[in-house]
Amino acid sequence: MRAVVEPADHKREPSIHIERETGKAETVLQELDRIIASRHFRSAGRSRQFLQHVVQQKLAGHVERLKERTIGTELFQRSPDYATGDDPVVRVQAGEVRRRLEQYYQEAPCKPPVCIKLPVGSYSPKFEWIAEELSAKPEPLTLSPPTVAPIQRPKRLTRSGVVILAAVLLILAAVVCIPFLDSRFAAHKATTVMEEFWSPVFKSPQPVLICLAKPVVYRPSGKLYERYSRAHPGTFQTEVERYNQPLPLDPGEKLSWSDMTAYPEYGVDLGDAYAGLSLSGLFGQLGKPRQVRIGSNYSFQDLRNSPAVVVGAFNNRWTMDLTANLHFAFVEKDGKFTIQEQTPGGRNWLQHVPNSPSENADYAIVGRILDSRTGQFIAIVAGINGTGTQAAAEFVSQPEYMEKLLHNLPSDWQKKNMEVVLKTTITDSIAGPPQVVAAYFW
């Protein structure tokens, strides 16, 4: 049965507005049913409701209702005068639906007659008709009866002609054989430690997921900016100012909880962002398709379907969960973040500040789990702080750092799980080269 989402203030059944006579509306609804029944949407209630709502409104010809405030009011029960700048529920959900649609069509086993897309910057869905594109056939060719030419005796090649022909044949042989020989050589030549480290990601046809954390972030509400602006005319008049300038409140000023608003679009750590860029560039060089996922945009089910790199430590619940029972684990102890060796009398590493106020150190874990409880290859690239995460990403993406680990590797390390603890010295908030301080294989 098709689930139908109707706006509360419109009780009548909406009439299908577009192309009723050709049955295209029914084809769109059939594709909508397939989409919301897929694994990408069936466990995401809000995404299903959003997609059903905008598609049905588009089919009914109610394009004027596909505006942010109207959708927020009709679908998410917001008040008609709610501040869209303070409550980005519609924008966030539209982005989530776009992401899930992209994944759905990437994994679709065959092309459907119509693709439902949600263009960036719009809440009005677009229907792309595949059948129409394929139905355009070229005009048939009309062949004239062949003209029979009189048989002529072939001319004898001159000496220069023989030389030219031989040269052409040699060039053709080189073009055909050299790539074959190169491939045979490439297949037998030794790979680097970095290439062997990442070789498990190529056993899956799925793209590797680069999973970044996104903790909860709060921002001053629009009302708080307006209150400050009334007391200080000419300040914070535009969103650009609010995005790029801190709000200079008196430290003693009292605020209520309503003065702060949770913003789901913000919150990626700077070190995690650098790590994501480094890893994405690495997989591009290795020729492995990749997808970057942020915050709640990936689930345990996603980790079961694809190899993944989990970035960040204490701000990433999946890192904390996956490393909880490993030899080296991230542990919060007495209010301090540490890396703990989980054996009797095991070592621990925590961020410390030596005598120099401009220098400190950070630590990180690089993990390589061949068959995690997700059933897929998992790599962990995570520091106690963002600088440690950045150093860990440099370690796994730059061959010169990983080659230094070579003398500590067991002979059959490629078939083993591994964890490496790294140290990086921080000078003026910049991470130095990563150094291996401990390693464990099993």
Write up what this structure looks like.
- The chain is of the alpha+beta class and 442 residues long.
- The chain is 37% helix and 18% strand.
- It has three domains: 114 residues; 189 residues, no CATH class; 45 residues, no CATH class.
- Strands 3, 6, 7, 11, 12, 13, 14 and 15 form an eight-stranded mixed sheet that branches. Strands 8-9-10 form a three-stranded antiparallel sheet, with no helix packed on it.
- β11 and β12 form a beta hairpin.
- The N terminus is likely disordered.
Q: List SSEs in N-to-C order.
A: HHHHEEHHHEEHHEHEHEHEEEEEHHEEE
Tell me the Rg in angstroms: 30 Å
Reported for the largest beta sheet, the result is: 8 strands, mixed
Shape: flat
Structural class: alpha+beta
* Number of spatially distinct domains: 3
Enumerate how many helices there are, as a single number: 14
Spans of at least 5 consecutive residues whose pLDDT stays below 50 are 1-17, 133-149, 173-190
Helix content: 25-40%
- Assembly type: single chain
Straight-line distance between termini = 50 Å
Strand content: 15-25%
Total count of strands:
15
Query: If you average the pLDDT, what whole number results?
Result: 80
